[in-house]
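Let us work through a complete example step by step.
Step 1: write down the sequence.
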Amino acid sequence: MTTTSVIDQAKFEAFLHKIVGDAAAAMSGALVIIGDRLGLYRALADSGPLTSAELAKKTGTHERYVREWLANQAASGYLEYDSETKKYTLPPEHEPMLADEDSPVHLCGAFAIVQTAYTDEPKVTEAFKSGAGVGWHEHDPRLFPATERFFRPGYRANIVANWIPALDGVDEKLQAGASVADVGCGLGRSTMLMAQAYPNSKFVGFDYHEGSIEAARRLAAAEGLSDRVTFEVAPAKGFPGNDYDLITCFDCIHDMGDPVGALTHIRKALKPDGTLMMVEPFANDRLEDNLNPVGRLYFAASTLLCTPASLSQEVGLGLGAQAGEARMRAVAQEAGFSRFRRATETPFNLVYEARP
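Step 2: predict the structure and record it as C-alpha coordinates.
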Protein backbone atom coordinates (compact mmCIF):
# COMPACT_ATOMS: atom_id res chain seq x y z
CA MET A 1 0.00 0.00 0.00
CA THR A 2 1.38 3.41 -0.95
CA THR A 3 0.74 6.60 0.92
CA THR A 4 0.23 9.93 -0.79
CA SER A 5 2.46 12.73 0.43
CA VAL A 6 0.82 15.98 1.34
CA ILE A 7 2.10 18.66 -1.02
CA ASP A 8 3.04 22.05 0.35
CA GLN A 9 1.73 24.19 -2.52
CA ALA A 10 3.95 27.17 -1.74
CA LYS A 11 7.04 24.95 -1.62
CA PHE A 12 5.97 23.25 -4.85
CA GLU A 13 5.57 26.56 -6.66
CA ALA A 14 8.82 27.96 -5.28
CA PHE A 15 10.75 24.96 -6.57
CA LEU A 16 8.99 25.11 -9.92
CA HIS A 17 10.14 28.71 -10.31
CA LYS A 18 13.64 27.74 -9.21
CA ILE A 19 14.05 24.89 -11.67
CA VAL A 20 12.69 27.00 -14.54
CA GLY A 21 15.22 29.65 -13.54
CA ASP A 22 18.02 27.11 -13.48
CA ALA A 23 17.08 25.81 -16.92
CA ALA A 24 16.98 29.39 -18.20
CA ALA A 25 20.41 30.04 -16.68
CA ALA A 26 21.84 26.88 -18.23
CA MET A 27 20.53 27.89 -21.66
CA SER A 28 21.59 31.51 -21.25
CA GLY A 29 25.17 30.50 -20.50
CA ALA A 30 25.68 29.97 -24.23
CA LEU A 31 24.59 33.56 -24.78
CA VAL A 32 27.17 34.79 -22.26
CA ILE A 33 29.83 33.02 -24.34
CA ILE A 34 28.48 34.68 -27.50
CA GLY A 35 28.39 38.11 -25.87
CA ASP A 36 31.93 37.68 -24.66
CA ARG A 37 33.34 36.42 -27.96
CA LEU A 38 31.64 39.05 -30.09
CA GLY A 39 32.57 41.93 -27.79
CA LEU A 40 28.96 42.82 -27.02
CA TYR A 41 29.60 43.36 -23.30
CA ARG A 42 32.75 45.37 -24.02
CA ALA A 43 30.90 47.62 -26.48
CA LEU A 44 28.16 48.29 -23.94
CA ALA A 45 30.75 49.05 -21.28
CA ASP A 46 32.58 51.47 -23.56
CA SER A 47 29.56 53.21 -25.07
CA GLY A 48 26.88 53.32 -22.40
CA PRO A 49 23.19 52.74 -23.25
CA LEU A 50 22.61 51.38 -26.76
CA THR A 51 19.72 50.16 -28.86
CA SER A 52 19.98 46.82 -30.61
CA ALA A 53 20.73 48.58 -33.90
CA GLU A 54 23.45 50.70 -32.32
CA LEU A 55 25.09 47.71 -30.65
CA ALA A 56 24.95 45.66 -33.85
CA LYS A 57 26.58 48.50 -35.81
CA LYS A 58 29.36 48.92 -33.24
CA THR A 59 30.18 45.22 -33.15
CA GLY A 60 29.64 44.30 -36.82
CA THR A 61 26.87 41.88 -35.96
CA HIS A 62 23.33 41.28 -37.27
CA GLU A 63 20.69 43.38 -35.52
CA ARG A 64 18.03 40.68 -35.41
CA TYR A 65 20.29 38.33 -33.46
CA VAL A 66 21.48 41.14 -31.22
CA ARG A 67 17.89 42.12 -30.44
CA GLU A 68 17.08 38.65 -29.09
CA TRP A 69 20.36 38.46 -27.20
CA LEU A 70 19.72 41.79 -25.50
CA ALA A 71 16.23 40.74 -24.45
CA ASN A 72 17.61 37.56 -22.87
CA GLN A 73 20.32 39.47 -21.06
CA ALA A 74 17.80 41.95 -19.67
CA ALA A 75 15.52 39.11 -18.57
CA SER A 76 18.55 37.50 -16.93
CA GLY A 77 19.33 40.64 -14.96
CA TYR A 78 22.71 41.03 -16.66
CA LEU A 79 21.62 44.18 -18.51
CA GLU A 80 19.11 46.94 -17.74
CA TYR A 81 16.44 48.01 -20.26
CA ASP A 82 14.85 51.44 -20.62
CA SER A 83 11.41 51.01 -22.22
CA GLU A 84 11.22 54.68 -23.22
CA THR A 85 14.53 54.92 -25.06
CA LYS A 86 14.62 51.23 -26.10
CA LYS A 87 18.22 51.17 -24.93
CA TYR A 88 20.15 48.60 -22.91
CA THR A 89 22.80 49.32 -20.29
CA LEU A 90 25.54 47.22 -18.75
CA PRO A 91 25.54 48.45 -15.14
CA PRO A 92 29.00 49.45 -13.87
CA GLU A 93 28.62 46.91 -11.08
CA HIS A 94 28.35 44.13 -13.70
CA GLU A 95 31.24 45.26 -15.86
CA PRO A 96 34.02 43.56 -13.80
CA MET A 97 32.40 40.14 -14.25
CA LEU A 98 31.50 40.45 -17.92
CA ALA A 99 33.59 43.08 -19.72
CA ASP A 100 36.85 43.72 -17.88
CA GLU A 101 39.50 41.11 -18.67
CA ASP A 102 41.79 42.61 -16.03
CA SER A 103 39.21 42.33 -13.24
CA PRO A 104 39.95 39.73 -10.54
CA VAL A 105 36.32 38.60 -10.80
CA HIS A 106 36.01 38.33 -14.59
CA LEU A 107 33.90 35.18 -14.97
CA CYS A 108 33.28 34.63 -18.67
CA GLY A 109 35.80 31.79 -18.61
CA ALA A 110 33.50 29.88 -16.26
CA PHE A 111 30.83 29.66 -18.95
CA ALA A 112 33.36 28.30 -21.45
CA ILE A 113 34.13 25.51 -18.97
CA VAL A 114 30.39 24.81 -18.61
CA GLN A 115 30.15 24.51 -22.40
CA THR A 116 32.66 21.66 -22.43
CA ALA A 117 30.91 19.96 -19.51
CA TYR A 118 27.79 19.49 -21.63
CA THR A 119 29.91 18.13 -24.48
CA ASP A 120 31.60 15.61 -22.19
CA GLU A 121 28.46 14.61 -20.28
CA PRO A 122 28.11 11.22 -22.08
CA LYS A 123 31.60 10.19 -20.90
CA VAL A 124 30.82 11.11 -17.31
CA THR A 125 27.44 9.37 -17.46
CA GLU A 126 29.18 6.16 -18.51
CA ALA A 127 31.70 6.63 -15.69
CA PHE A 128 28.82 6.84 -13.21
CA LYS A 129 27.78 3.34 -14.30
CA SER A 130 31.24 1.76 -14.58
CA GLY A 131 33.06 3.52 -11.75
CA ALA A 132 35.93 4.25 -14.14
CA GLY A 133 37.53 7.67 -14.30
CA VAL A 134 37.70 10.26 -17.05
CA GLY A 135 41.21 11.63 -17.41
CA TRP A 136 41.84 15.34 -17.80
CA HIS A 137 43.34 14.62 -21.24
CA GLU A 138 40.12 12.86 -22.30
CA HIS A 139 37.98 15.99 -22.12
CA ASP A 140 36.96 18.35 -24.90
CA PRO A 141 40.19 20.24 -25.80
CA ARG A 142 38.37 23.55 -25.36
CA LEU A 143 38.43 22.85 -21.63
CA PHE A 144 42.14 23.58 -21.29
CA PRO A 145 42.21 27.22 -22.50
CA ALA A 146 38.84 27.81 -20.80
CA THR A 147 40.30 26.66 -17.47
CA GLU A 148 43.32 28.93 -17.92
CA ARG A 149 41.06 31.86 -18.64
CA PHE A 150 38.83 31.10 -15.64
CA PHE A 151 41.72 30.98 -13.17
CA ARG A 152 43.78 33.80 -14.72
CA PRO A 153 41.98 36.79 -13.11
CA GLY A 154 42.20 35.39 -9.57
CA TYR A 155 45.79 34.30 -10.02
CA ARG A 156 46.79 37.67 -11.46
CA ALA A 157 45.17 39.48 -8.54
CA ASN A 158 46.44 37.23 -5.74
CA ILE A 159 49.53 35.09 -6.36
CA VAL A 160 52.12 37.84 -6.15
CA ALA A 161 50.18 40.47 -4.21
CA ASN A 162 48.68 38.27 -1.48
CA TRP A 163 49.45 34.56 -1.53
CA ILE A 164 53.25 34.47 -1.73
CA PRO A 165 53.64 37.30 0.83
CA ALA A 166 51.50 35.23 3.24
CA LEU A 167 54.18 32.51 3.25
CA ASP A 168 57.02 32.59 5.77
CA GLY A 169 60.07 34.28 4.18
CA VAL A 170 59.28 33.11 0.64
CA ASP A 171 58.87 36.53 -0.98
CA GLU A 172 62.36 37.50 0.19
CA LYS A 173 63.85 34.29 -1.22
CA LEU A 174 62.21 34.86 -4.59
CA GLN A 175 63.37 38.47 -4.71
CA ALA A 176 66.95 37.37 -4.11
CA GLY A 177 66.80 34.42 -6.52
CA ALA A 178 65.30 30.99 -5.90
CA SER A 179 64.45 27.75 -7.64
CA VAL A 180 60.72 27.15 -8.10
CA ALA A 181 58.66 24.24 -9.46
CA ASP A 182 55.01 24.74 -10.34
CA VAL A 183 53.48 21.25 -10.29
CA GLY A 184 50.27 20.64 -12.22
CA CYS A 185 50.80 23.94 -14.04
CA GLY A 186 48.36 23.39 -16.91
CA LEU A 187 48.88 26.15 -19.48
CA GLY A 188 51.39 27.77 -17.15
CA ARG A 189 49.67 31.02 -16.27
CA SER A 190 50.57 30.71 -12.59
CA THR A 191 54.19 29.93 -13.47
CA MET A 192 54.50 32.93 -15.77
CA LEU A 193 52.92 35.34 -13.31
CA MET A 194 55.53 34.37 -10.73
CA ALA A 195 58.34 34.59 -13.28
CA GLN A 196 57.28 38.09 -14.30
CA ALA A 197 57.29 39.25 -10.68
CA TYR A 198 60.58 37.64 -9.64
CA PRO A 199 63.15 38.07 -12.45
CA ASN A 200 66.04 36.79 -10.28
CA SER A 201 64.41 33.39 -9.77
CA LYS A 202 64.15 30.39 -12.07
CA PHE A 203 60.84 28.65 -12.67
CA VAL A 204 59.85 25.32 -14.17
CA GLY A 205 56.29 24.18 -14.74
CA PHE A 206 55.38 20.49 -14.78
CA ASP A 207 52.21 18.85 -16.02
CA TYR A 208 51.44 15.36 -17.28
CA HIS A 209 49.29 16.74 -20.13
CA GLU A 210 51.49 17.24 -23.18
CA GLY A 211 49.04 19.54 -24.97
CA SER A 212 48.96 21.95 -22.04
CA ILE A 213 52.76 22.03 -21.80
CA GLU A 214 53.07 22.78 -25.51
CA ALA A 215 50.62 25.65 -25.12
CA ALA A 216 52.48 26.93 -22.04
CA ARG A 217 55.75 27.02 -23.98
CA ARG A 218 54.13 29.07 -26.74
CA LEU A 219 52.65 31.53 -24.22
CA ALA A 220 55.97 31.92 -22.41
CA ALA A 221 57.80 32.61 -25.67
CA ALA A 222 55.17 35.16 -26.69
CA GLU A 223 55.57 36.96 -23.36
CA GLY A 224 59.39 36.95 -23.51
CA LEU A 225 59.82 34.72 -20.47
CA SER A 226 61.72 31.80 -21.98
CA ASP A 227 64.95 32.94 -20.33
CA ARG A 228 63.68 32.23 -16.82
CA VAL A 229 60.74 29.85 -17.16
CA THR A 230 60.62 26.41 -18.76
CA PHE A 231 57.89 23.80 -19.06
CA GLU A 232 58.27 20.03 -19.02
CA VAL A 233 55.93 17.07 -19.33
CA ALA A 234 56.15 15.18 -16.03
CA PRO A 235 53.78 13.69 -13.43
CA ALA A 236 53.42 15.07 -9.93
CA LYS A 237 54.93 11.86 -8.51
CA GLY A 238 57.92 11.84 -10.85
CA PHE A 239 59.09 15.31 -11.88
CA PRO A 240 62.88 15.84 -11.79
CA GLY A 241 64.93 17.90 -9.33
CA ASN A 242 65.48 17.82 -5.57
CA ASP A 243 66.64 21.30 -4.57
CA TYR A 244 63.63 23.56 -4.92
CA ASP A 245 63.13 26.52 -2.59
CA LEU A 246 59.44 26.67 -3.42
CA ILE A 247 57.02 24.21 -5.00
CA THR A 248 53.53 25.38 -5.87
CA CYS A 249 50.36 23.45 -6.66
CA PHE A 250 47.49 25.60 -7.89
CA ASP A 251 44.04 23.99 -7.83
CA CYS A 252 45.32 20.54 -8.69
CA ILE A 253 46.10 18.40 -5.62
CA HIS A 254 42.46 17.35 -5.26
CA ASP A 255 42.48 16.20 -8.93
CA MET A 256 45.29 13.72 -8.34
CA GLY A 257 44.69 10.02 -7.95
CA ASP A 258 47.43 9.68 -5.36
CA PRO A 259 47.83 13.04 -3.62
CA VAL A 260 49.76 11.43 -0.76
CA GLY A 261 52.26 9.98 -3.23
CA ALA A 262 52.50 13.30 -5.06
CA LEU A 263 53.10 15.26 -1.86
CA THR A 264 55.65 12.69 -0.70
CA HIS A 265 57.61 13.26 -3.91
CA ILE A 266 57.21 17.03 -3.54
CA ARG A 267 58.54 16.92 0.04
CA LYS A 268 61.62 15.04 -1.12
CA ALA A 269 62.15 17.53 -3.97
CA LEU A 270 62.24 20.51 -1.59
CA LYS A 271 65.36 21.84 0.10
CA PRO A 272 65.32 21.20 3.89
CA ASP A 273 64.14 24.79 4.41
CA GLY A 274 61.86 24.78 1.34
CA THR A 275 58.16 25.54 1.19
CA LEU A 276 55.15 23.97 -0.48
CA MET A 277 52.26 26.29 -1.34
CA MET A 278 48.99 24.55 -2.15
CA VAL A 279 46.07 26.57 -3.45
CA GLU A 280 42.77 24.71 -3.31
CA PRO A 281 39.10 25.61 -3.81
CA PHE A 282 37.53 27.18 -0.74
CA ALA A 283 35.70 24.58 1.31
CA ASN A 284 34.58 24.12 4.88
CA ASP A 285 35.20 20.77 6.51
CA ARG A 286 31.51 19.88 7.00
CA LEU A 287 29.33 19.12 3.98
CA GLU A 288 26.42 21.14 5.36
CA ASP A 289 28.62 24.24 5.49
CA ASN A 290 29.34 23.98 1.77
CA LEU A 291 25.71 23.89 0.63
CA ASN A 292 25.81 27.40 -0.80
CA PRO A 293 26.30 28.99 -4.27
CA VAL A 294 30.10 28.62 -4.24
CA GLY A 295 29.80 25.04 -3.05
CA ARG A 296 27.20 24.37 -5.71
CA LEU A 297 29.62 25.48 -8.44
CA TYR A 298 32.52 23.54 -6.98
CA PHE A 299 30.53 20.34 -6.39
CA ALA A 300 29.39 20.50 -10.04
CA ALA A 301 32.99 20.89 -11.22
CA SER A 302 34.05 18.14 -8.85
CA THR A 303 31.45 15.72 -10.20
CA LEU A 304 32.20 16.46 -13.85
CA LEU A 305 35.95 17.09 -13.82
CA CYS A 306 37.90 16.69 -10.57
CA THR A 307 36.65 13.38 -9.19
CA PRO A 308 36.66 11.66 -12.61
CA ALA A 309 40.26 12.84 -13.09
CA SER A 310 41.31 11.35 -9.75
CA LEU A 311 39.47 8.07 -10.36
CA SER A 312 41.24 7.68 -13.71
CA GLN A 313 44.64 7.47 -11.98
CA GLU A 314 46.33 4.94 -9.72
CA VAL A 315 45.02 4.87 -6.13
CA GLY A 316 42.05 7.02 -7.19
CA LEU A 317 41.57 8.67 -3.81
CA GLY A 318 38.94 11.04 -5.17
CA LEU A 319 39.39 13.93 -2.74
CA GLY A 320 37.04 16.13 -4.74
CA ALA A 321 37.01 19.90 -5.07
CA GLN A 322 35.44 20.39 -1.63
CA ALA A 323 37.93 18.41 0.44
CA GLY A 324 38.38 21.10 3.09
CA GLU A 325 41.30 21.93 5.36
CA ALA A 326 41.14 18.91 7.66
CA ARG A 327 41.47 16.42 4.80
CA MET A 328 44.22 18.42 3.10
CA ARG A 329 46.12 18.60 6.39
CA ALA A 330 45.79 14.82 6.82
CA VAL A 331 47.11 14.21 3.30
CA ALA A 332 50.10 16.50 3.89
CA GLN A 333 50.90 14.88 7.22
CA GLU A 334 50.65 11.38 5.73
CA ALA A 335 53.11 12.54 3.06
CA GLY A 336 55.60 13.45 5.80
CA PHE A 337 55.20 17.22 6.10
CA SER A 338 55.82 18.27 9.69
CA ARG A 339 54.30 21.76 9.47
CA PHE A 340 51.02 22.73 7.83
CA ARG A 341 48.95 25.88 8.13
CA ARG A 342 46.32 27.91 6.32
CA ALA A 343 48.38 30.89 5.18
CA THR A 344 45.53 32.96 3.76
CA GLU A 345 42.24 32.67 1.88
CA THR A 346 39.82 34.34 -0.50
CA PRO A 347 36.09 33.65 -0.93
CA PHE A 348 37.08 31.15 -3.62
CA ASN A 349 40.42 29.71 -2.47
CA LEU A 350 42.28 28.33 0.53
CA VAL A 351 46.05 28.78 0.52
CA TYR A 352 48.09 26.28 2.54
CA GLU A 353 51.75 26.39 3.51
CA ALA A 354 53.57 23.12 4.26
CA ARG A 355 57.16 22.56 5.35
CA PRO A 356 59.22 19.33 5.48
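Step 3: interpret the result. The chain has two domains: 9-97, 168-295+308-355.
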